Amino acid sequence: EVGLRGEFGRVAVAQLVSDSSARGFRSSVSGFGSDSVPVPLGPYTHSHLLIRFQVSSTPSVSVALGSDVLLPCTLTPEKNGEKMEIRWFKKIFQPYVHLYINGKDDYTAQMPQFANRTELLKENITRGIFPLKIHKVTAEDSGEYYCYVESSDHHSMAAVQLQVTAVGTVPVISITNDNVSCESRDWNPKPHLTWTDNEGNKINSSMVEVLRDENNLYYILSIIQQPSASNITCTVSNSINHCSDTRQIRGLEHSQTSRGTHSRVYVIGASFLLIFCICFLLRSLANGTLHTEASYSPA
Predict the structure, then answer these.
(1) 156 and 18, same structural domain?
(2) What CA–CA distance (Å, rounded) separates 68 from 137?
(3) Largest distance between two CA atoms of the chain
């Protein structure tokens, strides 16, 4: 059998691309440049590359973190896929995400992160419909997937982009003497953070830090110098969800005024204490001098 077990190379199959473009499908057999996905060369001639079936999918699928997702894969025209090889993979053919071959699933070289989490749905495989189900998706599952289908004399594949989304924690605002910070975690894709004052004007941050944790989720931290506005807003959002979490903090002017008032009280109190000490010292010195003079007066 020719195909994945034959010679591998990096080629663009123009026939597949033109056909998929005409049908509105997304094909992934060309346009990869230096990062192209290997397509088996084998002893194919031009006649072998004539389209016998086309693999199609949807351009992208979005799913919430922790949910199950279906990645579509369909043959056009309808063909029975029971005796075909159906291989789902990401960047390389092997290790793969899921493999169906010789009429059964083969988990021998499956990517470890997908162990016990993938299922090729075969209810409509005789009609050329066999989506891949991934259970409990993680942030690491994000990326481009390829559905590669091979018969005894033909092969084709298509790509689908999986976007795993996660809305992070409510932003937490903290205040120090000179700075205000805002942080939020557990976002996917990468979030961005904005500060605004009570009139909606943006406030420039002095520091922004974005990190990924052990679960491949994003953590973001931003710091600004404490503004004069009495009402500031920290908003965190990402491009997929088009939503944000906002927290407002009020009374910054009052806090600053209170600190200034307390400072003035401390200064005035210290001044009174200093004056009292000086007066007491002068009085003590005066009393001591008079007592000395009285002691040495002639009899």
Answers:
(1) yes
(2) 6
(3) 143
Which residue type occupies 213? Answer: D
CA angle 169–174–177, rounded 5-degree value: 165
Look at residue 129 and tell me if it is in a domain.
yes
In this structure, of 47-56, 87-96, 137-146, 154-163, the range with the lowest mean pLDDT score is 47-56
Produce one character per residue of 34-52: b if its CB has 16 or more CB atoms within 10 Å, e if not.
eeebebbebebeeeeeeee
What does the alpha-carbon distance between residue 162 and residue 160 come to, in Å, rounded to a whole number?
6
> Does some domain include residue 1?
no
Amino acid, res. 47: S
DSSP for 90-134, please give it.
SSSSSSBSEEEETTEE--TTB-GGGTTTEEE--TTGGGTB-PEEE
Q: For 76-98, how does the pLDDT look when each residue is reduced to its tens digit (9 = 90+)?
A: 999 999 999 999 999 999 999 99
Q: How far is CA 176 from the centre of its chain?
A: 28
Single pTM value for the model: 0.65
Q: In what order do the strands lie in the sheet containing 218-225? A: 172-175, 179-187, 218-225, 207-212
Residue 232 and residue 107 share a domain: no
The token pair at 286 is 């005066």
Element (H, E) at 271: helix 252-295
Cα 88 to Cα 259: distance, rounded to the nearest angstrom: 63
Residue 170 burial (10 A CB sphere; 0-12, 13-18, 19+): exposed
Show the domain range for 45: 8-165
